[in-house]
Amino acid sequence: MRFAEFFEADEVRLVEPLFSDLCYKEMDELLLQIPAERSRILIDENEEILSVGLEGEYGTIDASCFHLRTPSDTLISRLEDMDGDIFQVTRREFENSVRKYYSDNLINTSEIAPDDLNPERLVITRDLINSFVGNEHSIHCLDCCCGTGIGTYLMREMGINPLSYDNDDALLARGFAEGRLDPERTMWIDGRLIEAYLTEPVDCAFGFMFGELQLFNHDIWSEIISGVCAVSERVMITVGTEPEACIIKGWMKSGGYEPEIWENDRDPIYDRWVCSIG
């Protein structure tokens, strides 16, 4: 469903420039600056506010999303002084539609990275996923730093519908172009902040071919992995070399986890070493 349909409107513009902006309270100021006399409020099945739209003089609607943050008191006060309509939708429908809204924007504005798919890698990665989840397909799963969506594609093929994220818009654009990533289930965010963008518990998390881990990027990768471990008790991360796997194991142990590393000899290059917890 198009986002605008929730408001029974032809078009709704979200004032937050990027999906990653949705968790920041400062974004309320963008909506407060818009002149309007009528509001349209979208609530979920529990009557909690999901979005607020302000209707301009010519029927244009500018809106903000509030599934990742709470509306400010200033915004609530303004709404109380305005005439408005209330609409209702399930939270799941809303969240999927918001992700699609921003994914469509990314598709239209980002350069597309070269395709990185080695067809032989599909069998190897599928085996790794199966070894970790078995027949558990009705699970809430993450594809962390998903790149062009090879892991996501395989999980979807297996009946798992993961939530995928990455900070590289060109890689995501390639994933959308190839049909490996689902616009409703993909987020363009900084992986270090994943906890701020989740609204339900995670059963397990995958990260395929992390790295390359170098001294200059250790801080970034350690925060990304810390974020993954904070949201899921079961994590599988693959890298290309044993030293990288040992570094990740050290980071996990320092966080109080009990990781294991092992060599995956199915491929000499991709997903060669695995580090997992849970």
Please describe the structure with a list of short key phrases separated by commas or semicolons:
single chain, 278 residues, alpha/beta, Rossmann fold, seven-stranded mixed beta sheet, 33% helix, elongated
Question: How would you explain this protein's 3D organization?
Answer:
With 278 residues, the chain is α/β, with parallel strands linked by helices. The protein has 2 domains: 3-109, no CATH class; 119-277, Rossmann fold, CATH 3.40.50.150. It is 33% helix and 20% strand. It has helices spanning 28-32, 73-80, 91-109, 119-133, 150-157, 169-177, 218-231, 242-254, and strands at 12-14, 38-43, 49-55, 61-65, 83-88, 141-144, 163-166, 186-188, 204-207, 235-239, 260-263, 273-277. The longest helix is centred in the middle third of the chain and has 19 residues, at 91-109. The model has no long low-confidence stretch (mean pLDDT 94).
Largest sheet: 7 strands, mixed
| First-last Cα distance | 37 Å
Percent helix, as a range, is: 25-40%
CATH architecture field of the largest domain: 3-Layer(aba) Sandwich
- How would the global form be characterised? elongated
H/E topology pattern: EHEEEHEHHEHEHEEHEHEE
Q: Which fold name fills CATH's third level, the topology of the largest domain? A: Rossmann fold
Task: Provide the gyration radius in Å.
Answer: 21 Å
**What's the CATH class label of the largest domain?**
Alpha Beta
